[in-house]
Write a structure and sequence with these properties.
glycoprotein; ligand-gated ion channel; signal; transmembrane helix; 9 helices; alpha+beta; ion transport; rod-shaped
């Protein structure tokens, strides 16, 4: 038992010696840092402005580090970004001789124990005006304090939608002291350009610049100058997303509206196609309205293009109704005026190189017309018109009108002679029927001519509308889209 106790005591001594000899050499720094902190905070007042001469302003160097552009909300006109605030000033109460404190040249201190500038974003849109996360302040032996609090900032930004989606936006971020004027706290710009070395690219916006500017403003209420640092964020929208989801579908839909004038009126789908295209454009217009802010200051270029396209499609629907009305007119309800005949049957077809096809004539009328020509030729012979129509001789005129019979041919040599006889009343009935049929066919032919004229006028109007609306679509597309500052970004 005694031997075991002796062995345990020997191992404890060895372990103690190892701890003493292996103790890190820098452990003495803990005592120096503790002593330094106690000395610095002994009579320190966090409410006191740390300057040697109270009549002089405290100089604060201010800068920004942009980490990420999180979101640009056009409808709410708010931009969300991840920023680091870089602030540096000299605290005359926090300087020491590093040789007296074990060579310590800088320490980290909690900001709640120190004076720090009350720098806030003036145009903040966050519920909490101060969006920063408190971090330690790095204090150097000469009194220089470096404070870099990160934060997610929401700032107001007036969105200019005139050239949407080919737009550039310039959003300002205004920083300054909330309570100190320029005679107590003088802000100096750390660098004209914000630090963007660690910037993460945004999928919707391209960062063009982030410049800062120092402003000194005198307000009417106060004679003191107020200093602020304003950074201007210059960004450009990437147009690929909106090009595939808004512009190209709109151009295609407006081009399909032109096909309505190439569709035959008898198909029954001309009006349906125009109304369907108009409803499709309305859906895209609603999608655009949900993206842009509800402002009346300016109209976006894509909104102007959509409006022009919708007007064109609506007017094309109206012209389609007119074309269908012309196409289905007839001689019983409408008579074509002379001005329309001159315009749509002569001048416009001449300029458009359109030719009318030959008139379609009823086959029965062709037969009777040919028959009448044949009768005219037979009239030159010795037989009369009735004899030519009935294919009989003229000797029926020498008999009595009520009792005589007409003989066609008499063959005294044959027993079975054929005799064709009709009364004068039957002949009059036949002539009356022939005149009725001829007049009816002539009336039908005239009606067919009038119907064909209306149909040809509708065809000419279709061709004119096709050319005019094609020119309007091309001009509006080039005028609205290709006048943008840039097309591809």
């Amino acid at each position: 038992m005694l031997v075991k106790m002796t062995m345990w005591m020997d191992s404890s001594v060895v372990l103690l010696l190892l701890i003493l000899f292996c103790h890190p050499q820098g452990s003495a720094q803990g005592r120096h840092e503790r002593r330094l902190l106690n000395q610095l905070l002994k009579n320190y007042n966090a409410m006191e402005r740390p300057v040697a001469n109270e009549s002089e302003p405290l100089i604060l160097s201010f800068g920004l580090t942009l980490q990420q552009l999180i979101d640009v909300d056009e409808k709410s006109q708010i931009i969300t970004s991840n920023l680091w605030l870089n602030m540096e000033w000299i605290d005359s109460n926090l300087s020491w001789n590093s040789s007296q404190y074990g060579g310590i040249k800088d320490i980290r201190m909690n900001p709640k124990f120190l004076w720090k500038p009350d720098i806030l974003m003036y145009n903040s849109a966050d519920e909490r005006i101060d969006s920063t996360i408190p971090t330690n302040v790095v204090v150097q032996h000469n009194g220089t304090c470096t404070y870099i609090p990160p934060g997610i900032f929401k700032s107001t930004c007036k969105i200019d939608i005139m050239w949407f989606p080919f737009d550039d936006q310039q959003c300002i971020m205004k920083f300054g002291s909330w309570t100190y004027d320029g005679r107590a706290l003088d802000l100096r710009l750390y660098s004209e350009e914000a630090d963007m070395s660690a910037y993460i690219d945004n999928g919707e916006w391209i960062l063009l610049g982030f410049r800062g500017k120092r402003n000194v403003i005198f307000y009417t209420c106060c004679p003191e100058p107020y200093v602020d640092i304003t950074f201007t964020l210059h960004i450009r929208r990437r147009t690929l997303y909106h090009g595939f989801n808004l512009i190209i579908p709109c151009v295609l839909i407006s081009s399909m509206a032109l096909l309505g004038f190439a569709l035959p009126p008898d198909s029954g789908e001309k009006l349906t196609l125009g109304v369907t295209i108009l409803l499709s454009l309305t859906v895209f217009m609603l999608q655009l309205a949900q993206t842009l802010p509800p402002t009346s200051d300016a109209v976006s270029i894509i909104g102007t293009y959509f409006a022009c396209t919708m007007i064109m499609v609506a007017f094309s629907v109206v012209m389609t109704v007119v074309v269908l009305n012309y196409h289905h007119r007839n001689s019983d309800t409408h008579e074509m005026p002379q001005c329309i005949k001159t315009l749509f049957l002569k001048w416009l077809p001449f300029f458009l190189r359109m030719k009318r096809r030959g008139r379609k004539t009823n086959s029965r009328h062709v037969f009777f017309k040919n028959k009448m020509k044949e009768l005219d030729r037979k009239e030159r012979s010795s037989r009369s018109l009735i004899a030519n129509v009935l294919d009989i001789d003229d000797d029926f005129r020498s008999h009595n009108s009520t009792t005589s019979y007409l003989s066609v041919r008499t063959n005294e040599e044959t027993v079975n002679s054929h005799v064709c006889g009709v009364t004068q009343k039957e002949i009059s009935t036949i002539i009356r029927e022939l005149r009725f049929i001829t007049n009816r066919l002539k009336t039908e032919d005239e009606a067919t001519v009038i119907i064909n004229e209306w149909k040809f006028a509708a065809m000419v109007m279709d061709r004119v509308c096709l050319i005019l609306f094609t020119l309007f679509t091309l001009l509006s597309t080039f005028a609205c889209l290709f006048t943008a500052p840039h097309l591809v970004a």
